[in-house]
Write a structure and sequence with these properties.
By secondary structure, this protein is α/β, with parallel strands linked by helices. Helices cover about 50% and strands about 15% of the residues. It folds into 4 domains: about 290 residues, P-loop containing nucleotide triphosphate hydrolases (Rossmann fold, 3-Layer(aba) Sandwich), CATH 3.40.50; about 120 residues, SecA, preprotein cross-linking domain (Pre-protein croslinking domain of SecA); about 170 residues, 3-Layer(aba) Sandwich (Rossmann fold), CATH 3.40.50; about 180 residues, Helical scaffold and wing domains of SecA, CATH 1.10.3060. Its EC number is 7.4.2.8.
Length: about 850
């Protein structure tokens, strides 16, 4: 053991635990005894004692796996399972059986009854892994659910439960018959089974899938379901039941590569251009100081009683404050603000038929920036220019903050060590490199560097042709669709048959990738294609040197290159990897091209001739480290901003939960307290208050009478009057008030939170520019958003009081429409790249690299 090798020290501790598991010999135990023991542990186990049961549960799962799916975990797989149980990242090479490794910590933690989430990168792998490992869980009496992006959910069940129960009684091994051809290794097929049985999936509700002991699904769906759960207007509509333990497969892809962009739930704007125009006309008919008052300092507009009545007549409605008409109020106030608070050529200009904001501090134009909450459209209607519609952001969260909610979080992948610092800093997870079951014998060649891309691709084709004629299978990794198609055309000219895979993961892709190890097979794929699928070598391929991996470009992350290399050399198989590069490749051109070109000129490299040396390979790895550091900075910056937002998001979501749980009276007490305090702050100096201003501000809640001018007396007066009005409303609506009050409060919270999220996006853009003025963008973001959040909470309390005390009725249609809104939302998680940003934008246009799911 190396003296300072931390990984070896950690493994030494795990090997001692493996020895203890191996001492538990269950080969001669009856199947029924194993199940009885698990049932007994399920009754005894607690959060505090879970580690005490690790050895026995791992031993039982190992034996049950052998008897149900014909696979017995190796000792190194036991280590992988313990690493996952300890909330760490297990780095395991391709083909080492990560899917099986997860079953042991999954069962152990599922016995607590809190629910375990197994997170995969796509629907195909979620379904495949759940069904492949399903018999182990079902045999131990655990329920297994699957959620997918088609808004469908399933549970795995026995097709014939009686057959399984009889097998248990007779102590027979039971192997899956159904789908075994698709998923099980050739040597483990059902022909060796003592008794064949079948499993199947049945469709269940999303909520039921989450209430299973184990739930398989994709990272996007777990995140989106969390956001959707915090938009419901009834607790019974929630699907998730908490966040106890998650194991993330391909953890580097999910928690690092995809962590640079947040998950966003958005919906189409419910408004039309005609609505803005209509309310612009209504605003022109209202008289200042008669129908409304304007506070230029705070940039707010307040309707008077006379104004409210006038608007109700113009709109032909009974009550402007009915939640059914909440949007009309926003339209009207925005139209009035546009008319009286935002001036042309001061706050904005008209440029090429568009409203362009003028920065109030610098006087510079801010093209692309828009006022939020419908205000920009109101100004467009005022100026008679084209009105642009926008989608509304309902909710957003980053993967970092979603997955950090879990009490226990673990991950597994073939490549994680290069990002250990990030896993530790962001998620608190150490990385443990698990030894391979058999020694790795793959040969990783030094990079071949050519002057131009044309020379490089010709060299790749020549290499493929040479290996194809020999019969050796080749898998070529490219960094874009465009390059995979370019290579395909060149191979067609040479009459070399091949498969091209360059879209998102799907079942056909996994099937083709799994056959990429057959003789004479040539497969061109984007670097990540088929991730999670094993490539097994066909007959006679070992003798030819195994699978050859060709990389046509270095990725900005070493992990992605290592993932590509890892497709070859599984479980002690032979294999080889070579990267063909050129000075025109994005990574080299941007970060290290000049140095390499000087070397080529010194040694006088001829056209079509490469240079290669271990020192050059190391130089390129240094470039990759540099880019990885930049990307880490981007993710860290995103996280720091989102962590500020996360605290606010949790405050809003916990307040929603507080209301959903029935604390509506307490909410109104909080609102009355805030409403009162804000007025005292605004209209009172020391102990004396401006009675006229107080009186004017209270018209909106119909409080009249003799108003005291002493601060403490005014405080008591306001509180008593508001409580009195509140009690009157409770009597008026009787038993329905609780439902009405809750609905109004939730509607007000959601509407303000949506507007706040839009404003925050603008703030992110604005504070990033302040770095040029030697100001820390994160500190600036905190200052801005704390002030904005406080203002939003004040609006929430004030609007809740105003709407509640003015409500006359609540139609069932209003509630139905609110629930309908949630059915129309879009879920979005766009990809992002630093070096290849322009290239991926082009891919985006083809619709191949964008994940956008419509509900």
């Amino acid at each position: 053991m190396k003296l300072f090798d931390k990984n070896e020290r950690v493994l030494k501790k795990y090997w001692k635990k493996v020895k203890k598991i191996n001492e538990i010999n269950l080969e001669n135990s009856k199947f029924s005894e194993l199940i009885e023991r698990i049932n007994k542990i399920k009754k005894e186990i607690t959060q505090e004692t879970i580690d005490d049961y690790l050895y026995e549960v791992f031993a039982i799962v190992r034996e049950v796996a052998k008897r149900t799916i014909g696979l017995r975990p190796f000792d190194v797989q036991l280590i992988g399972g313990m690493v996952l149980h300890d909330s760490k990242v297990a780095e395991m090479k391709t083909g080492e059986g990560k899917t099986l490794v997860a079953t042991m910590p999954v069962v152990l933690n599922a016995l607590l009854g809190k629910g375990v989430h197994l997170v995969t990168v796509n629907d195909y792998l979620a379904k495949r892994d759940a069904m492949w490992m399903g018999p182990i869980y079902l045999a131990l009496g655990l329920r297994v659910g699957i959620i997918n992006t088609q808004n469908k959910s399933y549970e795995i069940i026995w097709k014939n439960k009686e057959a399984f129960e009889n097998a248990v009684k007779e102590n027979l091994s039971v192997w899956p018959l159904d789908f075994s051809d698709e998923f099980l290794p050739e040597e483990k097929k059902v022909k060796n089974a003592t008794l064949a049985f079948e499993i199947e999936i049945k469709e269940i509700s999303r909520k039921e899938a989450y209430h299973c002991d184990i739930t398989y699904g994709t990272n996007t769906e777990f995140g989106f379901d969390y956001l959707r759960d915090n938009l419901v207007i009834d607790l019974s509509d929630r699907v998730q039941r908490g966040h106890y333990y998650a194991i993330v497969d391909e953890v580097d892809s999910i928690l690092i590569d995809e962590a640079r962009t947040p998950l966003i739930i958005s919906g189409p704007s419910k408004t039309k251009a005609s609505d803005y125009k209509r309310f612009n006309q209504i605003a022109k008919k209202l008289i200042k100081d008669k129908h409304f008052t304007v506070d230029e300092k705070k940039k707010t507009v307040i309707l008077t009683d006379e104004g409210i009545e006038h608007v109700e007549k113009l709109l032909n409605i009974d009550n402007l404050y009915d939640p059914e008409h909440v949007n009309k109020m926003y339209f009207l106030l925005n139209a009035l603000k546009a008319q009286y608070l935002f001036k042309k050529d001061v706050d904005y200009i008209i440029h090429k038929g568009e409203v362009v904001i003028v920065d109030e501090f610098t006087g510079r134009l801010l093209p692309g920036r828009r006022y939020s909450g419908g205000l920009h459209q109101a100004i467009e209607a005022k100026e008679g220019v084209s009105i642009k519609e926008e989608s509304i952001t309902y909710a957003t969260i980053t993967y970092q903050n979603y997955f950090r909610m879990y009490e226990k979080l673990a991950g597994m992948t073939g490549t994680a060590k290069t990002e250990e610092e990030e896993f530790k800093q962001i998620y608190g997870m150490d990385v443990v490199v698990i030894p391979t079951h058999k020694p790795m014998i793959r040969k990783d060649r030094d990079d071949l560097i050519y002057r131009t891309q044309e020379e490089k691709f010709q060299a790749v084709v020549n290499e493929i042709k040479k290996r194809y004629e020999k019969g050796q299978p080749v898998l070529v990794g490219t960094t874009s669709i465009e390059k995979s198609e370019r290579l395909s055309k060149m191979l067609k000219k040479e009459n070399i048959p091949h498969n091209v895979l360059n879209a998102k993961h799907h079942e056909k892709e996994a099937e083709i990738i799994s056959k990429a190890g057959q003789k004479n097979s040539v497969t061109i794929a984007t670097n990540m294609a088929g991730r999670g699928t094993d490539i097994k070598l066909g007959p006679g391929v070992k003798e030819l040197g195994g699978l050859l991996i060709i990389g046509t470009e270095r990725h900005e992350s070493r992990r992605i290159d290592n993932q590509l290399r890892g497709r070859a050399g599984r479980q002690g198989d032979p294999g080889e990897s070579i990267f063909f590069l050129s000075l025109e490749d994005d990574l080299i051109r941007i970060f290290g091209g000049e140095k390499l070109e000087k070397i080529m000129n010194i040694v006088k490299i001829e056209k079509g001739e490469p240079i290669y040396h271990p020192m050059l390979t190391k130089l390129i790895e240094k470039v990759q480290k540099k880019v990885e550091s930049i990307n880490f900075g981007i993710r860290k910056n995103l996280l720091q901003m989102d962590t500020v937002l996360d605290a606010q998001r949790k405050a809003i979501y916990s307040y929603r939960e507080y209301l959903l749980s029935g604390n509506i009276d307490e909410h109104f007490k909080d609102a009355i307290e805030d409403f009162t305090e804000r007025r005292l702050e605004e209209f009172c100096e020391q102990n004396v208050c401006d009675v006229n201003k107080v009186k004017e501000s209270l018209k909106i809640v119909n409080i009249t009478g003799e108003i005291p001018d002493i601060r403490e007396e005014l405080k008591e007066f306001l509180k008593n009057k508001l409580i009195e009005k509140f009690e009157e409303k409770k009597k008026e609506f009787g038993e329905d008030f609780h439902k009405i009050g809750k609905f109004i409060a939730l509607r007000v919270i959601d509407e303000n939170w949506r507007q706040y999220l839009e404003e925050v996006e603008h703030v992110k853009e604005a504070v990033s520019l302040r770095a040029y003025g030697q100001k820390d963008p994160i500190i600036e973001f905190k200052k801005e958003t704390y002030r904005m959040f406080d203002g939003m909470m004040s609006r929430i309390f004030e609007q809740t009081i105003i709407y509640t005390l003015n409500i006359q009725r609540l139609s069932d249609e209003t509630e139905r429409q609110s629930k309908k809104e949630l059915e129309k939302i879009n879920t979005q998680h766009d990809e992002f790249s630093l070096v290849n940003r322009r290239k991926r934008r082009a891919v985006d246009k083809k619709g191949k690299k964008r994940l956008k799911v419509k509900r």
